[in-house]
Amino acid sequence: MKKTIPLQKRGIPASRLVLGCMGFGGGWNRNPVTADDLKQAHAAVETALAAGITMFDHADIYAYGKAEQVFGQVLRERPGLREQMVLQSKCGIRFDEGTGRPARYDFSAEHILSSVDGILSRLGVESLDILLLHRPDPLMEPEEVADAFSKLKQAGKVKGFGVSNMSPAQIRFLQSHLDAPLLVNQLELNLAKLDWLEAGVLVNQQEGAEVSFPEGTIEFCWMEQIQIQAWSPLAKGVFTGREPENQPESVRLTAALVREMAERKGTAPEAIVLAWLMRHPAGIQPVLGTIRPERIQASAEALQVSLSREEWYSLYVSSRGRKMP
Ligand SMILES: NC(=O)c1ccc[n+]([C@@H]2O[C@H](COP(=O)([O-])OP(=O)(O)OC[C@H]3O[C@@H](n4cnc5c(N)ncnc54)[C@H](OP(=O)(O)O)[C@@H]3O)[C@@H](O)[C@H]2O)c1
User: Fold this and answer.
1) Which domain of life is it from (predicted)?
2) Domains in the chain: ranges and CATH
């Protein structure tokens, strides 16, 4: 049975997989966007759409704004495309901007509002479907965020809001000042970084003291119908073909198991690693970081893969490198 994910339950036509756009625009440098960057962006968007991936994840900072800029160029050259997409971006991280001020987080209303204007202008669209606050800002004043959100909503610039890298306590605190539910929490979740599972499995165990993931985050988001999105879902390729330099034995063994399972199921290793995340009953939405057409296609095969409980556990146990407690 196909599971409906929280965003879909709220009537947002989100695809099961999201294409993350951090790699668009030629990388983290201040060079202008090139014709090759544009060609690569067209190919990635086209491959994603053909594979049924219609949701795209941006941030104002990606490639110093060039990721949104090149994506906007694609949209301008292909009118009608925007209507087929769910567009998400993020704000709240600032670099030093060459002014001698430190790189910092900024949830001030002034920054949120001006950041969204920048996002819309680079993407060349009238509105964003979802805006996320990128990383928790210790100086956040929730009333100010609420004010910025309602101005953006009233102006038709943003339809819905969410967060990234936040704990249940942080979400509850912010939510208590908002009049609409937060829709998304984007977190680093993958088969290499297992703390999101270990936090639940190691309750009442000494080993659990070393886990760095706020206990109950998954359950809280699931209960509140907050879409959990996984950033770095491919774990940067360590299980799917990237040379395992200086990786622990468990990574090598898990990569071999992923390969063997992919062969047995007649699919790509990427599909196994993503299907493993999607097998979790909370309905996790992986945000892919590749812009290579062949890897996007291989990833999209995850939509056809189902893993048994035993297969899911064999990958988990292999990656954790020891038996379940
Ligand atoms: N909210 C946050 O704080 C946050 C933080 C980071 C990222 N994100 C979002 O999450 C998305 C995904 O993040 P991510 O890029 O870290 O995720 P990822 O999908 O785990 O990793 C993709 C990266 O790994 C490389 N890779 C994958 N398989 C490979 C292989 N077999 N061999 C060599 N390289 C391989 C890709 O290179 P190729 O491009 O060559 O395939 C790409 O650079 C981003 O685009 C962004 O939208 C959010």
Assistant:
1) Bacteria
2) 6-243+268-306 (3.20.20.100)
